[in-house]
Amino acid sequence: MKSDSLRKHPLITGTLLLTLTGILSRIIGFFFRIFLSHRIGAEGMGIYQLTIPIHVLTISLTSSAIQTAISRFVAQAAANNSLGSGSPNNRRCSESCYLSAGLILSLSLSFLCTVFLYQSAETIAVNFLEEKRCAPLLKILAFTVPFGAIHSCINGYFYGLKKTFVPAMSQLLEQLARVLSVWLFFQISMEKYHAISLNLVVWGMVVGELAAVLFSVTFLRHKKSQGSRFHALGQIFFMSLPLSANRVLVNVLQSMEAVMLPGQLRLYGYSNTEALSVYGTLTGMALPMVLFPSVLTNSVSVMLLPLIAEAQEKQEKRYIINAVKKTCFYSLLLGFLCTLMFLLLGRWMGTVLFSNSLAGTFIVTLGWICPFLYLSTTLHSILNGLGKTTHTFFLNILGLGIRIAFVLLVIPLAGIKGYLWGALLSQIIMAAGALLMLLVRRSRVL
Predict the structure, then answer these.
(1) Is the Cβ–Cβ distance between 107 and 67 less than 8 Å?
(2) Angstrom distance (rounded) from CA 417 to CA 362
(3) Helical H segments across 120-228, by residue range
(4) d(CA 254, CA 400)
(5) How many CB atoms lie within 10 A of CB 9?
(6) pLDDT by residue for the chain (446 residues), tens digit each?
(7) 363 exposure class (CB count in 10 Å sphere: 0-12, 13-18, 19+)
């Protein structure tokens, strides 16, 4: 009971801080998207959104899994230090040792990725994205990769220590720097050239990542790394390798899904401009609105992973069981409340906020995925905290397979509704699958 009460405090305070800053970031991003939708239009949003899967893929290759590994091993190292016990292998590396090892690995990968993306931008834009106007955006996007790697590793370190101030505030600062720089770039461009380039939006991403890195680095305190950095590097590598491979494969499939969607809409009967406009409305307006409340479940997920890893290290089965129960209840409660809100206000949101009635239709339909999306997000974090990354990989592949099947088979017949149906079905199956895996393996895993 004592350990439960001790750990509730960082979970609650950490979640609240991440949630508050996340809400502020989402609000800023929400108005930023409205601003962009009026300045670059639905087609411009579609072109810009085509580059996002590539950005997510670079994160998966260079930092996402490494951040998870750093968070987990730092949490375990901190738990061992607080207990003053554990095997010598568990105590070989200090928390700062894991951070430095993760930075070495992540930066090495990020520089390789930057060079490849910059040199291959034309090929990727024409042959993969099937939109040559994405090429200059990808070249600029390449410069965000090293900054994102540093930022991600530092966040993982602080998450592992259950200190969320730096990750939370750096997220908010990144969003502010991005939005303000894009606004400033637009103002200068309009005064000088009387036109706006999509390139300026991506340059804003570079400025945002740079600002976040400068902020995060200032909070690092020099501590002598105890233990073998080589040993820490090996631990991070061997945990992050399968997790990174899983995420890369998942993001490759997500990229395929995103690229195929406009093409399948053209098969349904849309022109290229209409297809990009529908795609931009869906991914640049409706989806961000529906995902807005997920800032809370995302914050809980970030805090759950190191806490579950720590509980597993201390063999506290009851804590993990209670975490699963409470996660299910509150995720479903939040999800159903959000569904009701989008059903009642979705069309108004699209028409008034985005001046786009189609966005309102999408918001109403996508509102049904909220309970299942929020539940699967938090349950996947618990599975990752238990080290069951293969389980989450399988569920992600299954969900993506369903969505891709709907893109290929249903969209040419039913239009964009086919994608919305596939998105709903995939989230239901992913949430049910995660819950079933935890229940079936309860005696063995916990």
Answers:
(1) no
(2) 9
(3) 121-123, 135-141, 144-160, 165-193, 199-217
(4) 7
(5) 10
(6) 444 444 445 556 766 777 778 778 878 887 888 888 778 877 787 888 888 888 888 988 898 889 988 888 888 777 776 555 444 444 467 778 888 888 999 999 999 999 999 999 999 988 888 788 889 999 999 999 999 999 999 998 888 887 888 888 998 899 999 999 999 988 888 888 766 788 888 999 999 999 999 999 998 876 655 667 788 888 888 888 877 877 788 778 877 887 788 888 888 888 888 888 888 888 878 888 888 777 777 767 666 666 676 676 667 777 777 777 777 888 888 889 999 999 998 899 888 877 788 888 889 988 998 999 888 888 887 787 776 777 887 888 888 889 899 999 999 998 888 888 998 999 999 988 888 887 775 655 44
(7) buried
Closest CA to 306 of 22, 62, 15: 15
Cβ–Cβ contacts within 10 Å for residue 307, how many? 22
Go through the chain and tell me how many residues it has: 446
